[in-house]
Amino acid sequence: MDGQEEVNYLEQMISGQWKSGSAFAEDPFAEEKSPFVELTDDLLFHMVFTKNEKALKDLLSVLLGIPAAEIRTIEILNPMQYNDSIQTKPTILDLKVHLNQESFILVEMQVRNFKFWTNRTLIYACRQIDEQTKGKDAYESLQPVVQISIMKYPLFPERRKFYTEYRIQDDAGKVLTDKMRFYVLDLSSVDAANEAEREQGLVQWAQAFNAEDWNVFKDIDRNGIREAANTMAMIMSNPTERQLLWERKMALMDYNTEIISARMTGLEEGREEGKIEIARNMKIRGMANDIIAQLTGLSEKEIAKL
Question: Helix, strand, coil proportions of the chain in percent (round to 5)?
Fold first, then answer.
C-alpha cells in the first residue's frame, strides 16, 4: 500500500465498514471476514500473544526448539496497558515472559531496518540481567535471558539465514555462559530454511507473520497459529481495540513523516551551508562575485556579505 491507500484502509477499518461479529471468532475463514492487519503489526502482535496463552506457548515452543509439554508456566511481565503511550512511536511493544520461573524470554517484532539494532538488543538483554540483581544474591540465582527478534530483513545481507542463534563463546566454539542468548528469525529468508527448521514449525509461523490476508492462515495446519488467527479476529471485531490499532498505525505514520521531513530539512540546510563554504573559499581565492554566483547558485548580494 502507498501512504494514501493505507490511510483509506485505516479509515474504513475504524468506521466499521466491514461486517464483523462474535461468530467470526469461531471461524476466522468464514465468508464474512473481519478486516485484516498483519501479525507483524507491533501492537496487534502484543495483543494477540498477551491474550492467547495457547498461541504464545506454541510460538515459544517453536522459537526455542523445546516441546510444548516442557512449558509449564508462562508469566507475562509486561501485559498490555491501554493508555496514551501506545500512540507514540518510541514505545517498544515487545513481549517479556518469565518461562517456567527459570528463564526470561524477550520477543521483539522488528519489521523496519534499524541501524543500531544490535546495540539496542544488547542493552535490553543486559537490562533484564541487571533487574535480577536487585535485592538478591544474583551470583547463584541468575537466570538465563533469551532475546528473540522477528525481523523482515536480513541482519547480515551478505549471509542470509532464516533462523540464527548467537551465543557468547570463544573462537573454538567453547561457550562462556548460557545466561544470555540471542535468536533472529528473518521473515524475508524463508526460502533459506532447512528441513529441521521446517519440521520445527518455524516456516509455518513465518508464513503466518508474512500473511497479507486470511487465506494464508486457512492453509496453515497448526493449532497454535489457528489460535492466533482466532484472537486476531476477535480483536478486529472489537471497535475499541480496532481504534487502538488505527491510532497506533497513524502515530507510526506521523512519526515516519516527521523523520523524513527532518532529514529533508537537514539535507537542504546542509546544501546551503556547503554552498556558502564553497563561495567563501572562492572569494578568498579572488574570484569575481558574478562568477561565484553562477557556480554556486547564491545571489551576488549573499556573496558580497561573506
Answer: 55, 15, 30
